[in-house]
Amino acid sequence: MTQTVFPPLRAGVIGVGVFGGHHCGKYVDHPDTDLKAVFDPDVARAQVLADRYGAAVLTDLDAFLAGVDVVTIASPGVTHGALARRVLEAGKSALVEKPLALSALEARALVDLATDKGLVLACGHQERLVFEAMRLTGVGESPTYIYATRQGVFDRRGADVSITFDLMVHDMDLALMLIGQNEPADLTAQGRVVKTNKFDDVTMQAVFDNGARLELNATRVADKRRRIMRLEYESGAIEIDFIARTFQNFTGFNLNSDYHSTPEGRDPLGANVAAFIDAVLGRADAPAVTGRAGAAAVALAERVDAAVTRCDGGRQGRRDNP
Q: Does the pLDDT at position 5 exceed 90?
């Protein structure tokens, strides 16, 4: 059997912050991609990253897009939707870091545009791959209750969007995947504005049509980082510490406690990029995290922010019924 040999895909990265740098490294390391260019308004910073990886710095977006086949968008969250549209309209497949966009309408439009043009649209919710490495996605049961909190010390990075779109969106994506439904039947939310003009601390509660309950908290004004999740099933509970990279399994599920030694568990970003490349080259039917999945998380995040009642102690939230 003859193995198909593909010429390297010309890769480009928009955004030269921390995640942009990580994506550059993944494209350099992958045998089927050749990092060609980076694009960012901060030319000096872009040049440092480009020099590190042997890429060019382009300051004209049209010229950048003309010289690449696939693009990672790792710029500030407020720019994701508009940049993703430009990339797709130029006929290039895109991997967009979370959030995919800042509105459900914009996110769905991106999914439709990619479909119409036959392009791959992937999203950077790579913790899905960690759950797959744990074998959590194949247990045969849906959780009846999910609680998660993501707490961080204030950092300007990500502060261009609400904490819902910056941190909580990770747990929203994981919860929607495990519960298997995108639209809660009922939702309440509470929040605080502390350091920015966006919500910096948000708590939400939701109930789905299948009876599953979801409670999430995210804050960027804590005194230390804390990222945990508790999953409750009819078979028992699972408690996950994302920072320690450990979990406790009180069910009979055959989970992989050594998940962090798997390729997906050790390097979920690299695995997500590799899955994106496989989809572009036709070796996989879809990327690991589709644009449609990213759009579902955006829709829930938008709904939460719309439902948030600002509070200073009583934490009485407004109810939102779709």
A: no
- What letter would DSSP give residue 281? T
Distance in angstroms (rounded) separating the CA atoms of residues 299 and 100? 10
Query: Which position has the token pair 């994106």?
Result: 276
Tokens 């039917």 belong to residue: 285
Tell me if the pTM is above 0.90: yes
162-190 burial, b for 16+ CB within 10 Å, e for fewer? bbbbbbbbbbbbbbbbbbeeeebeebbbb
CA angle 234, 237, 242 (to 5 degrees): 140
Residue carrying structure tokens 């995108």? 182
What pLDDT, on the 0 to 100 scale, is given for residue 155?
83
For the chain, list the domains and their CATH numbers. 9-125+269-289 (3.40.50.720), 127-263+300-320 (3.30.360.10)
What is the rounded end-to-end Cα distance, in angstroms, of the chain?
53
Q: Closest by alpha carbon to 231, among 190, 179, 293, 268? A: 179
User: What are 248-262's pLDDT values in tens digits?
Assistant: 999 999 999 999 999
User: What are the pLDDT digits (tens) for 186-196?
Assistant: 999 999 999 99
What's the order of all strands across the beta sheet hosting 93-96? 56-57, 33-39, 9-14, 70-73, 93-96, 121-123
Is the Cβ–Cβ distance between 73 and 94 less than 8 Å?
A: yes
Report the distance separating Cα 313 and Cα 220, nearest Å: 18
